[in-house]
Amino acid sequence: MAPRHCDVLVIGAGAAGLMCALTAGQRGRAVQVVDHANRAGKKILMSGGGRCNFTNTGTSAGNFLSANPHFCKSALARYTPADFIDMVERHRIAWHEKELGQLFCDESSKQIVRMLLEECQQAGAQVRTGCTVESVERGTDGFRVRTSQGLFQSASLVVASGGLSIPSMGASGFGYELARQFGHALLPTRAGLVPLTLSGKHQERFADLSGVALPVEAHCNGQHFRNFMLLTHRGISGPAILQISSYWQPGDDLRLDLLPGRDAADWLQRMKRERGASALRTVLADVLPKRLAQRLCEHWLPDRALRQLDEPALAQAAALLSRFPLVASGTEGYRTAEVTLGGVDTAQVSSSTLESRRVPGLYFVGEVLDVTGWLGGYNFQWAWASGHAAGGVA
């Protein structure tokens, strides 16, 4: 059977793939997008609680993890949050800022997928779902891609197949296998933006507090994030924990400031002066969830009246509250991880075009690369920026 010819074949109809396709199509390129899932943009649809945290106005290279922290700068500088907001507003999609520069749709993430598909359609880029890639070969005239919907011949091939996170959404290691096939090095992958699990005493002592939430500042390996933590049946979650999880690995020291924004030592001294007859658990219950305050005083802190605590005991309590050592045993893994850390080594990819330095005409965009953003719209902005950079030249 004769192959269908196109200028650009994009593997993956997610955020980066659709952005790449519409950008290339707008240049007059003949574009085909293929995805094995039954619909486009599945991770977009589920993101942000169904409202899609589509960008972050504060995006900078400092919000990303990569073996080469400078790699993402070029693409991010050339396609900014303001550029994506322009497209959103052109499609009359209402949006709001939630916190910390995070932008969400007022109504539904379906609007973002619809917008991208409409832009693809207007640019003449065809999107095929339920189309599984079976093999990829490179010849003198480009790439031959065999799929469940036939054979395609393309001058450029863009790998936008994502990472390993949330396999229930169709995530697979396909992009990594393809990179390896063409001689690209891969950096070790692991789950990022993921809940942490506890075991042993910490798990026993906190398990029945599942559902309790509180603001904390999580510290690990020189990074810190202040936001909410949620205690779960198996461990800890919430934005502060998801953020720090990308910097934590088993065995690393993880500390929680349970009184963020407050000097624990000064506060305890003041409470001793003003409320000396009160038990420590009682005054703690004014600033922490009551059940957690009780549990801390059952196992880690002195369960006595404040006036009975001498200076060393107060100092010890303050140190524990401001640098609580939480021994995490692992993560919930790719099943619930929002992103995949590691991936295709950026050393062999152009930072300005996202083209392979090994194989002309081969491009990598989005999560398949070793570029991982913080929680809060940064990974979508990387998808838009990297897709736009490749789409501008592929």
UniProtKB/TrEMBL annotation:
Keywords carried by this UniProt record: FAD, Flavoprotein
CC cofactor: FAD
InterPro entries xrefs: BaiN-like, BaiN-like_dom_sf, FAD/NAD-bd_sf, RsdA/BaiN/AoA(So)-like_dom, RsdA/BaiN/AoA(So)_Rossmann
Record domain RsdA/BaiN/AoA(So)-like Rossmann fold-like: where: 7-391
RsdA/BaiN/AoA(So)-like insert domain sequence ranges: 190-339
Keyword Flavoprotein annotated: yes
NCBIfam families: aminoacetone oxidase family FAD-binding enzyme
Cited PANTHER family: OS12G0638800 PROTEIN
Protein name: NAD(P)/FAD-dependent oxidoreductase
Source organism per UniProt: Stenotrophomonas mori
